[in-house]
Amino acid sequence: MSSVTRAGLDHKLAMAKRCAHEGVMAGAKAAVVASVAAAIPTLASVRMLPWARANLNPTAQALIISTVAGAAYFIVADKTVLATARRNSFHDTYQVNTRMPKN
């Protein structure tokens, strides 16, 4: 069992913050792309299809677009955080296993 040091805890906290930041940035990028990808067909269908023109008011259009953006954000952010945490845990395990014992 390894001893817990202040430096070790600070290092883990910094890695967790970086992992969360990477997730937020990737999620935001995905949300922007998804909102554009959802907005184009939604707005085009409201102009071209009589059913959509009659039944999709501006609130419904905004709800469709924001739901897609929110889902994309959370899915991509979650996958990014998990992948980064997995990569960091393998990196930490490798460092612990390759340290030379002190005599």
Automatic annotation (TrEMBL):
The family database entries (InterPro entries) matched by this protein are listed as: Enod93 (IPR005050)
Keyword GTP-binding attached: no
Q: Which UniProt keywords apply?
A: Membrane, Transmembrane, Transmembrane helix
Q: Where is the signal peptide?
A: none
Q: Where are the transmembrane segments?
A: 20-40, 60-77
Record keyword Transport present = no
The name on file for this protein is Early nodulin-93-like
Organism for this UniProt entry: Ensete ventricosum
